[in-house]
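In this section we walk through a basic example: taking a raw amino acid sequence and producing a predicted 3D structure, encoded as discrete structure tokens. The instruction is simple. Fold the sequence below.
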Amino acid sequence: MRKQGPGSDLSGLAEELRRCHEDLKRARADLDKQKGEMNEKMEALLTLKKSSAAKETEMQEEIKNLKEQSQKDRDELEKIKESSAGGGKTVVDYGSNSELQEANSRLRERLARMMELMMGDSRQSVAALQFQLEEYRERSRKDLQEAQRNSKDRLAELQRAQGNLKAQQEEVSRLKKDLLTCSEERDSAQLERDLLSNRLKHLESELDTEKSSHTDRSREIRGLEDKIKTLEIELDEEKSSVELLNDRITRSRDQVDQLRSELMQERSARHDLEMDKSALERQLTLRVKALKRQVDESELEVERLEGVRRKVLRDLEEQQELQEALQAKVSAMESEIKRKGLSSHRSTIGSALSSEDEDGFYDTSLSTILNESHLQTSNC
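The resulting token sequence is shown next.
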């Protein structure tokens, strides 16, 4: 049982090292899988960025169309005013005013819808980026913890393997001591055999000289011969044991050399794993910083678009108030014209011209607002 113990221990140690190699292979496969998932996340982010750019282009095109429609409405209003002035009409056409109101209402509604769409898309993009960032952070944290746990497990297994190797080395040292003891016993037996042989020769010489009177010595010689045979048998057995011990020591040395080689390979693989883990941590840190920077830029863009929307709504409300004031003034002028009759025709014409100047100021203000909106959209 004692002869089979070191061999079984060495087999268990080799099996443990083989499991360590398999665990390292699985850890590397997990790292490759994480890198693939990271590349997929980057592709998804690029796709989201392209779709956001396409939506922004569509919004700019819609704004351009709205501006063109507003310009057409203003041109039609100018034509109506010119036709009214050329025909000598003094009463403002209520249909034109209603068309102007409808055009302004359509423009305001379109601008409001456009801004709501832009704000909704921006909020959705920011929410999606934040969700992806949180998900990526959580997954990175879990992967890092798993890698740390695996590294600790590998380190513990390596320490156990080193402990087993140390135990095997101690076993080899003990076997060497046993071999040395056996060698000393063999030398002692050989010396005793030589002494017995010399004594036998001496007794044989005495036997030749004193054959007749040494019967007891003959029995002693036979006993000594039997003892010598017994010692020779024991010596042969000791030689066989020594040969077995030598073979066992040789096999133990080979196994120790193999274990040392596997231990060096395990240390090299562990070093590679540490390097891969460090590179992955640096890459994850850079990805997280990039995603945070994108989220900050998106939030700033949302705040800026919100300010533009509020400014456009304030300008539209001011223009609506100005239009209502002009409408009241036109109604007052019509009432005054009906009262005064033909004698106040010239003064009414002058008032109409003044109203046209104010309408021109209104058109100029609306054009200025639209130009500012266009410039702000271009800056976006």
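Looking at the output, two observations stand out. The longest helix spans residues 215-340. The helical segments are 5-86, 94-209, 215-340, 345-379. In the next section we compare this with other chains.
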